[in-house]
Each structure stands twice: as C-alpha cells, then as structure tokens.
Design brief:
190 residues, mainly alpha, Recoverin, domain 1, 2 domains, two-stranded antiparallel sheet, 4 strands, 59% helix, 5% strand, calcium ion binding
Length: 190
C-alpha cells in the first residue's frame, strides 16, 4: 500500500511527465519532453555539449526517451491501451519498489537525468547545475536551493553514485524526511 505522502510525490512526477495534460502518460508526452529539452539546450547555447540535431547527446536524449517509454509501457500499462493512467503509475511504482525486476530502464533513465542536470559536464551536480536544471520546469531558485541543501546533505556537489541512491529513494521511500524526496527541486509536494 502506498502512503498518502508517497502518492503525492508520485503524482507530482506523473503530472510533470504528462506534458500535454491529458491525464495519462503516453509516448507523445516523452517526445514532447525530449523536444523541449533539445530546444531549451539549443536556445541556451548548449551546442558545445552536443545538442545540435544529429550530435551524440541529441540522439541519446531521444533514444533514452524511447527506451524509457517502451519500458514504462511494458511495466506500467496494465490494460495495454498505450497510456499509463495515474492509478497504473502508482501501482507500477508500488510493484517496482518491491522487486529488483524490470529496473534496468530506471537505472538508464537515472543516468540520463544525471547527465542532463550536470550542466557543466564535470561528473557532479552542484547547486548551480541543480537550480538551472530544475528551474526549467517552473521551479523557483529559492525552492531549488532549499531542496539542493536537503538533497546534498551538507556536500557541495552530488556524484552519480549519490544521485542513483537519491533517485531510487525518491520513488521508493515512505519517509517524508528522506533526502531523495528533494530530487525534483521542490521542498514539498503540497
């Protein structure tokens, strides 16, 4: 059974991924997210990171989005209608948190998100990276800084290994005080 707190944060992520606001997550939501990420990166002169169409990072973005959608649909779309409803989403995370199966896609997605948030490409996410990355989704700088402090637990930067633990914790923990809860840059889900 998923607690009210965990349901709130899972629904926060669900709404974030439901890019067209249809009330379900579909492949087109992931395509819209990839297109938006590529456009924002290009607009911010991030082409030196390989964001031009046809470059490796650009291709990786779309390939990862396709892989995540395919896995999400396989694991979460219980009625095979090509969409993941809010209830299917919550049920999927309840199942995933209790099993090591079907987690390869989640690890790849985590590594990709880390790479997207490591804006300077140094192998770490610092507060500047985190604020810039999470503000793209409408977050405030103040919220992002508060969340980063909780997430980083006194460190000035987050390694991939730390990020992987925090990522897993976000989706699985029922503990409202767990550091992984702040991975979205929000200090709360109310």
């Amino acid at each position: 059974m998923v607690s009210d707190f965990r349901r709130k944060k899972l629904m926060f992520m669900f709404k974030f991924l439901d890019k067209d606001g249809s009330g379900s997550i579909e492949k087109k939501d992931f395509q819209l997210a990839a297109e938006k990420a590529a456009k924002e990166a290009a607009e911010k002169a991030a082409t030196e990171r390989g964001w031009k169409e046809g470059d490796a990072l650009y291709k990786e973005c779309f390939d990862t989005i396709d892989m995540v959608w395919d896995a999400l649909q396989k694991v979460g779309d219980s009625n095979s209608d090509g969409q993941v409803s809010a209830e299917e989403w919550v049920t999927m995370w309840d199942t995933v948190s209790k099993s090591a199966a079907d987690r390869d896609w989640l690890d790849k997605y985590c590594k990709f998100i880390f790479k997207m948030q490591d804006l300077n490409g140094d192998g770490f996410i610092d507060s500047d990276d985190f604020v810039a990355a999470t503000s793209k989704s409408g977050n405030t700088k103040e919220n992002a800084l508060e969340a980063f402090k909780k997430l980083a637990q006194g460190k000035s930067q987050i390694s991939l290994t730390d990020f992987q633990k925090l990522w897993n914790e976000f989706f699985t923990t029922e503990d409202p005080n767990a550091p992984g809860n702040f991975i979205t840059g929000r200090p709360s889900f109310d």
